[in-house]
Specification:
alpha/beta, Rossmann fold, 2 domains, six-stranded parallel sheet, 35% helix, globular, binds magnesium ion
Length: 173
């Protein structure tokens, strides 16, 4: 039997971009926001200069790895036909940074498995893990919503919500 195709998002799933938002916002305003202050808000609403941060050199390259993601992706990579799918075209400068980031933290993934695209409506597969409804809502397969502050508290009845990579593994292994 052929392996099922699993699509994994980068930002907010493999890469902990919120740590970058908190850090850059604190550097700018001198106060670190609390998680409670940003829960349920869009990134742009939670961090006023979010657009400036994501276009800043190093934003993607220096993003911390999401807890448990390396081990989990390694395990899932054996069981599934796994692709990393990132709507990276929104930020062209992020392309080399994301490639380097993946090579450093996920060296076991090959270039065949990396899909940098525009809208994710173009991609097809059996399972998608993503933190944004705009990507999951159009997907025809099984959809797993990875909890991030911006999607916290929002209705998730159409997608399976997970709060960690540990929960992803419990569902998929
Ligand atoms: Mg994302």
């Amino acid at each position: 039997m052929s392996k099922k195709r699993l699509l994994v998002d980068m930002d907010g799933v493999m890469a902990d971009v919120y740590q970058q938002f908190f850090k850059m916002d604190e550097e700018e305003y001198g106060v670190r926001k609390t998680l409670e202050q940003v829960l349920g808000k869009w990134e742009r609403e939670a961090f006023k200069n979010e657009r400036a941060y994501v276009t800043r050199k190093g934003f993607f390259r220096e993003a911390p790895v999401m807890e448990g993601s390396i081990e989990a992706v390694k395990l899932l990579n054996d069981k599934f036909e796994l692709f990393v799918v990132s709507a990276a075209m929104e930020f062209p400068n992020s392309l080399p940074e994301k490639l380097e980031w993946l090579a450093e933290h996920f060296p076991f993934l090959t270039w065949h498995q990396l899909v940098f695209c525009g809208l994710k409506t173009i991609v097809k597969g059996d399972i998608m893990i993503d933190d944004h409804y705009r990507n999951l809502d159009h997907f025809t397969g099984r959809t797993i919503l990875f909890t991030q502050p911006h999607n916290y508290g929002h209705d998730d009845k159409h997608h399976e919500r997970v709060h960690s990579w540990k929960e992803v593994l419990e569902k998929l292994l």
